[in-house]
Design goal:
By secondary structure, the protein is mainly alpha-helical. It has helices at 3-23, 29-44, 49-68, 71-77, 89-109, 113-135, 162-181, 189-210, 246-267; strands spanning 143-144, 147-151, 159-160, 214-217, 222-224, 236-239. It is globular and about 60 Å long.
Length: 271
């Protein structure tokens, strides 16, 4: 299939899923626009872009579903996504920017190396989002990754729990199995994917517990990742840096996972 045909079909497919996502409240207008750029790049530029697109779509739909799962309860905990879970352009870029770059490079260079980077980044984003949205429902208090003796509130950046770690493993395993089933690579893509996602999420949790800006709302007596709490009150910086937010942490996680996946694939002679 030539590039023009792929571009035409890609425009239609991405537009349809974009409208559905917007109607379902998975993205806002800015997220819809950025999602189109990411989805179009992934679907059109690599020769087998539809296979990569299925992985990306799996992440997107599962993230949207589990973000809204028990949303009201998460809201009571103070850990629910803003705007009823509709992601904006920064969130889409943080999780989709590296996969889009890897897909474009795979289309330009080939050789499967960047396809492995794509798979690692998507698996890490899937594992991170689902572990956050499901792990927060753990009935016991999670612990801070930098000091497992310290118990913290659900949804705290850098918090880990048995449920959350189980979700990281299961979701990344699913992405790896799906990549194998689509014929993107041989069986070894599965352990590479799981390990890449695990390391990426480990980095994400560590950055969240150390350098990410964390704020305290005096009105609600809750920690938050934003300088403006959901109650509308300006929050006070308690740790980390103002210029390092959750989007930057997610982008870093995605990049690390992609690089780990590429390194493992080269070391194992898979590409």
């Amino acid at each position: 299939m030539d590039l023009l045909t792929r571009a035409t079909l890609g425009f239609l497919v991405v537009s349809i899923f974009g409208v559905i996502s917007y109607k379902k409240g998975f993205v806002d207008v800015s997220g819809l626009a950025m999602g189109f750029i990411v989805g179009f790049t992934v679907l059109v530029f690599p020769e087998d872009g539809w296979k990569l697109f299925i992985l990306l779509l799996t992440f997107h739909l599962s993230a949207g579903f589990f973000t809204k799962f028990k949303y009201n309860y998460k809201q009571q905990l103070g850990s629910a996504e803003w705007k009823r879970g509709a992601r904006g352009w920064m969130n889409v870029m943080a999780n989709g920017g590296i996969p889009a770059f890897m897909a474009a490079m795979e289309g330009a260079v080939g050789g499967q190396m960047f396809a492995y980077g794509f798979i690692g980044a998507v698996a890490s984003a899937t594992a991170d989002t689902l572990s956050n949205e499901i792990g927060v429902l753990y009935k016991y208090k999670p612990r801070l990754i930098t000091d497992l003796r310290v118990k913290v509130e659900p949804g705290t950046s850098g918090a880990v729990s048995p449920l959350g770690e189980a979700v990281v493993f299961i979701s990344s395993l699913f992405i790896g199995v799906l990549a194998f089933s689509l014929g993107l690579s041989g069986f070894l893509v599965i352990p590479v994917t799981v390990l890449s996602a695990f390391i990426g999420n480990l980095v994400d949790s560590f950055l969240g517990a150390t350098v990410q800006g964390i704020y305290w709302c005096n009105r609600c007596k809750k920690f938050t990742e934003k300088n403006l709490h959901s109650c509308g009150r300006e929050a006070e910086l308690k740790r980390g840096f103002k210029w390092i937010n959750n989007h930057m942490v997610n982008f870093s996680m995605s990049l690390i996972a992609a690089l780990v996946s590429i390194s493992l694939s080269l070391y194992m002679g898979l590409c």
